[in-house]
Amino acid sequence: MAQQSRITGEEAFVLHTYPYRETSLIVELFTRQFGRVSAVAKGAKRSSSNMKTSLQAFRPLHVSWGGRSELKTLFDAEWRAGTLPPTGNALMSAFYMNELLLKLLIREDPHENLFSVYEGAIKALGANDPSIEKILRRFERQLLTELGYGMTLTQDVRNNESVVPNALYTYVIGRGAVRINQGDDVEFKITGKALVDIENDALDDPRTLAQYKALMRLVISHHLGRKTLHTRRLFTDLQDEQFTHDKT
User: Fold this and answer.
1) Between 16 and which of 28, 31, 90, 192 could a Cys-Cys bridge form, CB atoms 3.0 to 4.6 Å apart?
2) C-alpha–C-alpha distance, residues 212 and 141, integer Å
């Protein structure tokens, strides 16, 4: 979309920062009205800079920038009140969400609904909401929907019949659910009950939640292609390390 030369007071979150020259940063922002925006924050590493402390991930901001090229110039970033940053396991989950946005969103493509879902997820994670898995699954599905990868879950795409809760299915990316037999040699299997639960956002059954996670991993990995999620690998390494520690 065409950009104005100057934007002021836009709601945003920092997704990532990179060092730029001696005193500056390149900042990847997720904004409400303009989607993902890249900007250079000149002098942001100087102790005298007002942006030195504000350009932190998971803190809601009001930002101002200018420029018509893909790399904008960031003029100001001020915290908005009301959200605490995540900690512990929730912090790793928040970094995972940021990495998904960085690797799947194209620049300057607005996703206001997704921004609201992201902001709500960060707020819940910062408040130590115990339902981290539910928060992540809902965010992942909204992200896929926003990207045009909406999922058909409660209709067998092979015969257009409704999914049967006590039957078994696979999921064909780009098409939807297809009923299978227990002994069929397929990469992914999911119960009809889980598909119905996911569609109805009924996620209290741990078995449904586990299958939901496997489904999202399958679909997201497909759309990432050769891109690697470093947060997923790090989380797996930490789990393996904890398992080894518990065994000793």
Assistant:
1) 28
2) 10
Amino acid identity of residue 97, one-letter, is M
Q: What is the CATH number of domain 155-224?
A: 1.20.1440.120
- d(CA 32, CA 27) in angstroms, rounded, equals 16
Q: pLDDT tens, 39-81?
A: 999 999 998 888 888 999 999 999 999 998 899 999 999 998 8
Strands 176-180 and 161-162: unpaired
pTM score:
0.88
Q: Residue 84: what are its φ and ψ, rounded to 5°?
A: -90, 145
108 strand-pairing partners: none
Angle between helix 206-224 and helix 88-104 axes, rounded to 10 deg: 40
CA dihedral (109, 114, 120, 121) in degrees, to 10, reads -100
Can you give the residue ranges of every domain in the chain?
6-79, 155-224
Q: Which residue has the higher pLDDT, 128 or 218?
A: 218
User: pLDDT, tens digit, for every residue of 172-209?
Assistant: 999 999 999 999 999 899 999 999 999 999 999 999 99
Fold of 6-79: OB fold (Dihydrolipoamide Acetyltransferase, E2P) (2.40.50)
The two tokens of residue 21 are: 């020259």
